[in-house]
Write a structure and sequence with these properties.
Strand order of the largest sheet: 5-6-10-8-9
Distance between the termini: 10 Å
Strand content: 15-25%
CATH class of one domain: Alpha Beta
Shape: globular
Largest sheet: 5 strands, antiparallel
CATH architecture of one domain: 2-Layer Sandwich
Oligomer: single chain
Radius of gyration: 23 Å
Length: about 475
């Protein structure tokens, strides 16, 4: 990491000149949304926020900063959860946002691709695909604010990973400005290209530590003609995983989402978030929210699903179920999934874990982690939920009722270690989709092997020898 030093005011003037009057922010009040994480966990400082409008402007900015040894912090929509896009507090780094680089450069429905700039908001991209009868399947809670460049840099997951994969699986090509200002044009629209190292994968999931993603070629998919959404009560997490396997088989692998949630999560949402409904006639310990889709319409698809659920009920896996009969009802069911996230903040401190394990281990993990957490902090309230179709559990733990919030949150590292040890025993990951950033940087040193860490550091040193790209993040 470069030695901290004050940035020369003359250099800041040069950077302002590169991007022009509309491309920089230096008023402290106007910079506030850029230097603070939305949850309030991280806060930094910068003398200048730059908003270049073109790849060439960014290239000129990066070259100027590299020559002066000035670190830069890339930022997308600032919706991250690990402090990966927040500058340090010493005012030594320039923050760069690509929010002005938000154009869709090319829509190619016949090739099922879209070429888009990094600052494009995810929801805008989704709608642009829908307008040409195509689907861009990345979907997550922050999609109205997050930007596709940040999604790629963090290798975002979301609710449809089960069927379409993480962001990494949706990228065909990238345009990247390197730390020294060079532009790498890897914007190929090809599904097959075996011409050496696939360089784009170095930058996907690197959290802005190796280069600055400015544009991407992304895969599109056929828009589903029929979508079925269901809310089911299941016996327990093990039953949910058995159900997942049987539905994948029965539906021809048409499951696009499979979300697990416990009753405590629904109770929190019913208590704190207006508009939340309790879809079933009586309470059950565990629920699954699922979505299946097909490219053909008609009654046969729904009948197949109903038959598969009937068999699951006879087998004791499913205890009750409802399938949405309209798009409005489907939205009501999906609203529950978003509400359980919001509701937890009203129940005091919440210590969070974004982990993944093999899908077959989900039930065992939840049982072991729940027992370990309750033993470590008596009265703590585990709220395990998430995208179990791909093995991703958000194992959040709310404080005991009436506990002191500050004292509870002071045990964050201790509880992380307890939960992460169980994850590692199952060959899992301590970060399924949120990334490492600043938050999990030290924990990464504990869970990665010396060989892995050495390889990561060598890649960083090769591409960013001065250590100027998003310093202090990941490594």
């Amino acid at each position: 990491m470069p030695e901290t030093k004050k940035i020369d005011p003359a250099l800041l003037d040069r950077l302002r000149a590169i991007v022009g009057p509309s491309g920089h922010i230096d008023d402290p009040a106007d910079m506030e949304p850029y230097v603070a994480e939305w949850r309030g966990r991280y806060r930094g400082a910068t003398p200048l926020v730059l908003r270049p409008a073109t790849t060439q402007e960014l290239s000129d900015v990066m070259r100027t900063c590299a020559e002066a040894g000035v670190p830069v912090v890339p930022q997308g929509g600032n919706t991250g959860l690990v402090g990966g896009s927040i500058p340090s507090a010493d005012n030594s780094e320039v923050l760069i946002s690509l929010s002005r680089m938000n154009k869709i450069r090319e829509m190619d429905p016949l090739n099922y691709t879209v070429t888009v700039e990094a600052g494009c908001v995810l929801q805008t991209l989704q709608q642009a695909a829908a307008d040409v009868d195509r689907l861009f399947p990345l979907s997550l809670g922050a999609e109205g604010t997050c930007q596709i460049g940040g999604n790629i840099s963090a290798n975002a997951g979301g609710t449809m990973t089960l069927r379409y994969g993480n962001t990494r699986d949706l990228v065909l090509g990238l345009e990247v400005v390197l730390p020294d200002g060079q532009i790498w044009n890897g914007m190929r629209r090809l599904r097959k290209n075996n011409t050496g190292y696939d360089l784009k994968h170095l930058f996907i999931g690197a959290e802005g530590t190796l280069g600055f993603i400015t544009a991407a070629v992304l895969k599109l998919f056929p828009r589903p003609k029929q979508v079925e959404t269901g809310f089911l009560a299941v016996r327990d997490p093990d039953a949910a995983i058995e159900l997942l396997a049987s539905l994948r088989s029965a539906s021809g692998d048409s499951l696009s989402a499979f979300e697990l949630m416990p009753r405590i999560a629904l109770d929190f949402a019913l208590k704190h978030v207006a508009g939340t409904i309790d879809p079933l006639s009586e309470p059950f310990p565990w629920y699954v929210l699922l979505e299946l889709s097909t490219g053909t319409g008609g009654d046969a698809f729904r009948e197949t699903i109903e038959a598969a659920l009937g068999e699951a009920m006879e087998a004791g896996l499913v205890q009750d179920a409802t399938l949405a009969s309209s798009e409005a009802q489907a939205k009501q069911l999906w609203f529950i999934r978003e509400a359980i996230v919001e509701a937890q903040k009203y129940e005091g401190g919440s210590i969070k874990h974004d982990i993944s394990i093999p899908v077959s281990c989900v039930g065992s993990f939840i049982a072991q982690a729940t027992e370990a957490v309750e033993r470590t902090i008596p009265g703590a309230r585990p709220v395990p939920f998430g995208h179990v179709g791909d093995g991703n559990i958000h194992f959040n733990v709310n404080q005991p009722v009436d506990a002191d919030t500050e004292a509870y949150l002071a045990q964050w590292d201790k509880l992380n270690e307890v939960v992460h040890d169980i994850v590692l025993s199952m060959d899992g990951s301590i970060s399924a989709e949120h990334g490492i950033g600043t938050f999990k940087r030290e924990e990464l040193q504990r869970v990665k092997s010396p060989v892995e860490l050495d390889l990561m550091r060598r890649i960083k040193a090769t591409l960013d020898p001065q250590g100027l790209m998003n310093p202090g993040k990941v490594l």
